[in-house]
Amino acid sequence: MNKPRSFTVGKLISNTTVLVITLFFAIPMLWLVLASIDQTASFQFKMPVPTVNHYITAVEAENLSALANSLALSGIAMVVGTTAAFMAAYVFSRHHVPFKNPLMLTILFLSGIPISILIVPTYKMFAILGWFSLVPTGVLLGVTGLPFQIYQLKNFIDAIPSELEEAAFMERASSFQILRLVIFPLTKPGLASAAIFGFVNAWGNFLIPIVLLSDVDQQPAPVRLYGFMGSTSINYGAVAAYSIVYSVPVLVLFLSMSRQFKAGFSLGGAVK
Question: What is the DSSP letter of 257?
């Protein structure tokens, strides 16, 4: 019996590709860490002159307030997007909807359209309605992630055996009870992954908050981060330190929901 060849051109290409992609992420991260503790930080790689001043700047009151605004915006977007996507995905999965397949293809197509192309009419709508505040902006950010979340949750609900719902109907359970007691518990991994997507989608958004939030006190962290970059100089150390502080909530969210997040991508195989 011939042993499989340990070295192939395919393995070499795939390993090289993974290495290059890893470097694209690792090098900026390494710069962030070094610059955040470097007293003379610049855009160049160099051995740092240790200091904690950049982190002291990063946790000043106004910077933490911006971080709290980001948490509020992303939390609203996550709750609104995930809840609406769950209800819509259940309807698409279990009920007869005219032109269901074209509608699902349209939803999938909409997930790839950047919201920036709609920013002008959206701004005018917010101006007319007087909605330049955190809650309406958070709701809008939740809507921007809705198409992908619907598609993701529908695939997950499709994998839940319909016999479970039929058994609940025979026990005279209402539609709401079936949704709450049967579908919801089995969809938790998918909901976790959809919620993380909704949170991260809003967390990193820069354009919508800077256009739709007129009050400086309500500006989120990405806009605050932009404030470290002046027209004539850039505070590289503060940018690096605040970027690291800014990434902590996302890491905490991912680590706390990592098991459900991984299971969410198992889709049908995880349920059946």
Answer: T
Q: Give 268's pLDDT tier (boundaries 50, 70, 90).
A: very low
Which positions ≥6 away from 150 have C-beta within 8 Å? 85, 88, 89, 92, 107
* Whole-number Å distance between alpha carbons of 160 and 126: 40
pLDDT at 271: 46
Q: How far from the centroid of its chain's Cα atoms is residue 160's Cα?
A: 25
Contact 257, 188 (CB under 8 A): no
Give residue-wise pLDDT tens across range 87-122.
999 998 888 888 888 888 887 777 777 778 888 999
The whole-angstrom distance between residue 249's C-alpha and the CA centroid of its chain comes to: 12
Q: At what angle do helices 61-94 and 134-144 cross, to 10 degrees?
A: 50
> Could you tell me if 53 and 231 are in contact, meaning their C-beta atoms sit under 8 angstroms apart?
no
Q: What is the pLDDT of residues 30-70, one digit of tens each?
A: 999 999 999 998 888 888 899 999 999 999 999 999 999 99
Say how far apart CA 150 and CA 152 lie, in whole Å: 5
50 close to 39: Cβ distance less than 8 angstroms:
yes
| Long-range contacts formed by 55-63: CB under 8 A, 24+ apart | 55/241, 55/245, 57/235, 57/237, 57/238, 57/241, 57/242, 58/238, 58/241, 58/242, 58/244, 58/245, 59/245, 62/224, 63/221, 63/224, 63/242, 63/245
In whole angstroms, what is the distance from residue 107 CA to residue 147 CA? 5
